[in-house]
Amino acid sequence: MSVFRNESYKREHSDEIKAYVVTKCWMKEPDDRSKWSYITATLYGFGIITTLGYNRIAPVTQTGRLFCVFYGICGIPLTMIIIANFGRYLNEITKKFKSRCDKSVASSLRRASLHHRIEENRKSSVSKGNDEPSIERLTL
């Protein structure tokens, strides 16, 4: 940088400096994210079929681009079908779980109600002077 601060050097080599600055500005820096490996290819394929599109890497050749188009045309509907079936499966599991919870709660409420009726029957029979509660009064 000290070379660029020297005024006489700037005047003598101004065209060279301009060319250097222009080429430096338009030169594409290598990006490690754009290098293809098995992991990046897998993530790219996943991004295509789930329509996420991370926009980090892309195929450069025409053949690669055409392959991605056909891969997406086949893979996107297939992925949506799989996601829909998985949703139905989760819905069925949730319904079964809710049904079991409802049955358990109803059973607990019936037992609590039965115990409450038995206690009331005992209290009423004791207040009448009977030591034994009568079964006839207990209605379910």
TrEMBL record:
Keywords attached to this entry: Ion channel, Ion transport, Membrane, Transmembrane, Transmembrane helix, Transport
GO biological process terms held by the UniProt record: stabilization of membrane potential
Alphabetical list of InterPro entries matching this protein: 2pore_dom_K_chnl (IPR003280), K_chnl_dom (IPR013099)
Primary localisation category: membrane
Residue span, Potassium channel domain: 33-90
GO cellular component: plasma membrane
Membrane-traversing stretches: 36-57, 69-90
GO molecular-function term, one example from the UniProt record: outward rectifier potassium channel activity
Subcellular localization, as worded in the UniProt entry: Membrane
Signal sequence coordinates: none
Record-linked Gene3D superfamilies: 1.10.287.70
The keyword Transmembrane appears for this protein: yes
Span list, region Disordered: 120-140
Membrane topology term: Multi-pass membrane protein
Any one Pfam family match given in the protein's UniProt record, by short name: Ion_trans_2
Keyword field contains Repeat: no
Family annotation (PANTHER family): POTASSIUM CHANNEL DOMAIN-CONTAINING PROTEIN, POTASSIUM CHANNEL, SUBFAMILY K
Identification of the protein by name: Potassium channel domain-containing protein
